[in-house]
UniProtKB/TrEMBL annotation:
It comes from Marinobacterium stanieri. One of its GO terms (biological process) is L-arginine biosynthetic process. N(2)-acetyl-L-ornithine binds at residues 142, 281. Its cofactor is pyridoxal 5'-phosphate. Keywords: Amino-acid biosynthesis, Aminotransferase, Arginine biosynthesis, Cytoplasm, Pyridoxal phosphate, Transferase. Its EC number is 2.6.1.11. This is Acetylornithine aminotransferase. It is found in: Cytoplasm. Binds 1 pyridoxal phosphate per subunit. It comes from the Bacteria. The modification N6-(pyridoxal phosphate)lysine is found at residue 253. The gene is argD. It is an enzyme of class 2 (transferase).
Length: 408
């Protein structure tokens, strides 16, 4: 191992510069608390972008990981394994799905979903039925296919030519969607709550309208639940809070509780189009990942945890409203469950990054959802006292920023 001192400065020397991480380096976590190299303590309201859904080093997950580590780590999909089969069985039992495909990330799950939608249309209709519709400001991953389906053109800059046959409608605008959908549409893909696009929930009537259009034009409805899934909104998956069932659902982030894993869920009607050899992955269905994910599912899919998410949402909202009453910094607070966005007022638009840095100085870890929105996505079991203390630190950070701006 290198003897070079490992600091934030080393990042700039050895890492490709596509990230610009915060100046501290976390080294240890427990629950909703994190400590850096200098043993400074932080309250974590990020959970690794909605990933460590049970907090850091949850004892049940550590136990399962250690047990599986003494058995088998990797086999490839030339063979199956017990943790993958058990997890697939649990997911199909608890959701609409009949079949599961495992991979390693949300982007991979979406890549599989989009490929499956086109393959299904080709199998049952024609190769001309290949168009995918998604929504402006959506985000579906960073592969060339998924970044093109995503509705944020900035992520395609410099990577053209990109895949064709993809269209974007304004989110929550059913009339605009009707103008785009046709007999050549093979799928409509949507997030129940747009995450990277600013924490924007889909209207119930819009969700119903999308389902009806898919049925009318023989298109598949894909729900990207990479961020909303696994209890994040107060249900196991956000579609369960609607009267709509998708044909394909993608899951990742919180599914592994911090261990990389992704899953695409679908029905017996659609799944056969992924016949032997049509799609694959070396690491997907990894025994370590599936063992951990199985325990994550067992821990989260309990009434006390899911009901707790709803209760903690109310606490967050009341605390953010109190901050706003004092500082008038938020235009709107929105979201669902423990996926919450606070949009900054006009004069602070584009400056969300300053709030992340100011919060860090107060011992608080928060996120952005684009340059105008502060995002909070903590552990689903974060103690109420950590929420209150975290909000107190946020208020201090906001006060400091506003004071500095006035002085300047």
């Amino acid at each position: 191992m290198s003897t070079t001192q490992v600091t934030r400065a080393l990042f700039d020397e050895v890492m490709v510069p596509n990230y610009n991480p915060q100046q501290m380096v976390p080294v240890r976590g427990e629950g909703s608390r994190v400590w850096d190299q200098d043993d400074n303590e932080y309250i974590d309201l990020t959970s690794g972008i909605a990933v460590t859904s049970l907090g850091h080093c949850h004892p049940a997950l550590v136990k399962v990981l250690k047990e599986q580590a003494d058995k088998v780590w990797h086999l490839s999909n030339v063979y199956t394994n017990e943790p993958a089969l058990a997890l697939a069985q649990d997911l199909t039992r608890e959701t609409f799905a009949d079949k599961v495909f495992f991979c390693n990330s949300g982007a991979e799950a979406n890549e599989a979903a989009f490929k499956l939608a086109r393959k299904y249309a080709s199998d049952h209709f024609s190769e001309e039925k290949n168009e995918i519709i998604s929504f402006v400001q959506s985000f579906h991953g960073r592969t060339l296919f998924t970044v093109t389906v995503g509705g944020q053109p900035k992520y395609c800059q410099g990577f053209k030519p990109v895949p064709g046959g993809i269209h974007h409608a304004p989110f929550n605008d059913l009339d605009a969607l009707k103008e785009l959908v046709s007999d050549n549409t093979c799928a409509i893909v949507m997030e129940p709550v747009q995450g990277e696009g600013g924490i924007i929930p889909a209207n119930p009537e819009f969700v119903r309208g999308v389902r009806e259009l898919c049925d009318q034009f023989n298109a598949l409805l894909i729900f990207d639940e990479v961020q909303t899934g696994m209890g994040r909104t107060g249900s196991l998956y956000a579609y369960m809070d609607t009267d709509v069932t998708p044909d394909i659902l993608t899951s990742a982030k919180g599914l592994g509780g911090g261990f990389p894993v992704g899953a695409m869920l679908t029905t017996d009607k659609v799944a056969p189009s992924f016949n032997v050899g049509t799609h694959g992955t070396t690491y997907g269905g990894n025994p370590l990942a599936c063992a951990v994910a199985g325990e994550v599912l067992r821990q989260i899919n309990r009434p006390e945890v899911l009901e707790g998410v709803v209760q903690k949402n109310a606490l967050f909202n009341s605390e953010l409203e109190a901050i706003n009453a004092k500082h008038h910094i938020f235009k709107e607070v929105r979201g669902k469950g423990l996926l919450i966005g606070a949009e900054l007022v006009d004069e602070w638009q584009g400056k969300a990054g300053q709030f992340l840095a100011a919060a860090r100085e107060q011992g608080l870890m928060i996120l952005m959802a684009g340059p105008n929105v502060l995002r909070f996505a903590p552990s689903l079991i974060i103690p109420d006292e950590d929420i209150r203390e975290g909000m107190a630190k946020l208020e201090q950070a906001i006060a400091q920023l506003l004071s500095t701006a006035e002085a300047g």
